[in-house]
Design brief:
It contains 16 helices and 13 strands. The protein has helices at about 1-5, 10-25, 40-50, 55, 75-85, 110-115, 125-135, 150-165, 180-185, 200-205, 210-215, 230-245, 265-275, 305-310, 325-330, 365-375; strands at about 35-40, 60-70, 90-95, 120, 140-145, 170-175, 195-200, 220-225, 250, 275, 280, 285-290, 295. A hairpin with a 3-residue loop joins strand 11 and strand 12 (about 285-290). The structure holds iron/sulfur cluster.
Length: about 375
């Protein structure tokens, strides 16, 4: 625990907070005219609220919560398609726990399971492979979901299935990439963003150069950060120092984990198994060019969309968000979760309307878990 304790040291945190305050004042930001700093990753959103960093930093800093929660940005149509596959009698659907309660149009995977579908929670795609080996008479499908962090492990499972000739294993691929939605946000003239805290785990795979366009083309600073309080405070300070000095660069606060050029073995597995979809629908952001991955034709036997003639293989499908749901506005940083009219009333962790309330990286779940629930109570 010693290593973690150092990253939570209150004396060091107070020193960084005081430098954050000085730098914010040097920039001239105030509560009325704050700097908008987007933390892209949902894991960072939770860390900020868990440690109360939003309350500790200078009033002139406003954290904007980005779209970096893969469960939250999954459009309803993909949940519906996953449920459709899971309801086939021959199928064992496997998924990470986070995805179980994400609402679809008709039902979530949890509700489909309660109604009799064979849906099992796994901790790794390799667990799904093992199920396929043990159940040769069934079709085992893995709900492949996530950013570049989880994309390699799904790729390795597909490569292994190919090596073993495991004909009853396939992946419903919903893997997506981080840089493209950031570009889409920066292209939106209504978004006012002064700098970014970059994702830690994703960057461990793709490295830091993937964000060069943010500094080079858009003139915004970005600092890749770890997940402990001092990581986040130091990264914020590094962003502010760039703004104060009139610089825009990609910097790496999380160098103890994130290599500049990423992880070559993971990148090779990704390149071997996947190719870019022309576009992919994101909840709240719409279609974004080249932001989703699909399984290459060489591995088509392991592609659930091809196997079951569903999803993009059957033509793109889009369904509207539920009435009154403000997930899109929250995910693009336009409003805070507590400004959603459904927060705490029509949408709670027990009865969620949107995915942001049930995902462990969702902004609404963070507000609820770390004090937002109280914020939703009538005065
Ligand atoms: S409170 Fe519920 S409906 Fe509103 S933005 Fe959050 S998840 Fe979506």
């Amino acid at each position: 625990m010693k290593h973690v304790t150092e990253f939570r040291d209150p004396v060091a945190a107070r020193a960084v907070l005081s430098r954050i305050a000085e730098t914010t004042e040097a920039i001239g930001a105030t509560r009325e005219k704050p700097l908008h700093i987007m933390e892209i990753c949902g894991g960072h959103t939770h860390a900020i609220f868990r440690y109360g960093l939003d309350k500790l930093v200078h009033d002139g800093i406003e954290f904007i919560h980005g779209p970096g929660c893969p469960v939250c940005v999954l459009p309803m149509a993909r949940v519906d398609e996953c449920v459709e596959i899971a309801e086939r009698p021959e199928v064992i659907m496997t998924t990470f726990g986070d995805a179980m309660r994400v609402p679809g149009t008709r039902k979530s995977l949890m509700q489909a399971k309660a109604a009799g579908a064979d849906i099992r929670m796994v901790y790794s795609p390799l667990d799904a492979l093992e199920l396929a080996r043990r159940n040769p008479g069934r079709e085992v499908v893995f709900f492949g979901l996530g950013f570049e962090t989880t994309t390699p492990s799904t790729a390795l499972a597909i490569q292994q299935a190919a090596r073993e000739g495991l004909a009853n294993f396939s992946v419903f691929c919903n893997h997506i990439t981080v840089p493209e939605p950031i570009r889409a946000l920066l292209d939106d003239p209504h978004m006012v963003l002064d700098g970014f805290i970059g994702p830690g785990h994703v960057s461990m795979v793709i490295g830091t150069h993937a964000y060069d366009f943010i500094a080079r083309d858009c003139g915004k600073p970005i600092v890749v950060a770890g997940f402990e309080p001092l990581d986040l405070l130091q990264a914020l300070l590094m962003v502010l120092e760039q703004i104060r000095d009139g610089r825009a660069a990609v910097e790496n606060q999380y160098a103890r984990v994130v290599p500049e050029h990423g992880n070559p073995a993971s990148l090779a597995a990704i390149a071997d198994v996947y190719e870019r979809r022309p576009s992919f629908e994101w909840r709240g952001l719409g279609e974004i060019d080249a932001s989703g991955l699909r399984i290459r034709p060489a591995y088509a036997a392991f592609d659930a969309e091809e196997k079951f003639g569903i999803g993009y293989a059957a033509g793109p499908r889009s369904v509207p968000e539920p009435e009154g749901c403000a997930c899109g506005q929250v995910m693009t940083g336009r409003i805070k979760p507590t400004a959603c009219p459904q927060f705490g009333t029509g949408c709670t962790p027990e009865m969620p309307l949107g995915a942001l309330m049930v995902s462990s990286e969702g902004a609404c779940a963070a507000y609820w878990q770390y004090g937002g629930a109280r914020a939703a109570e009538p005065a």
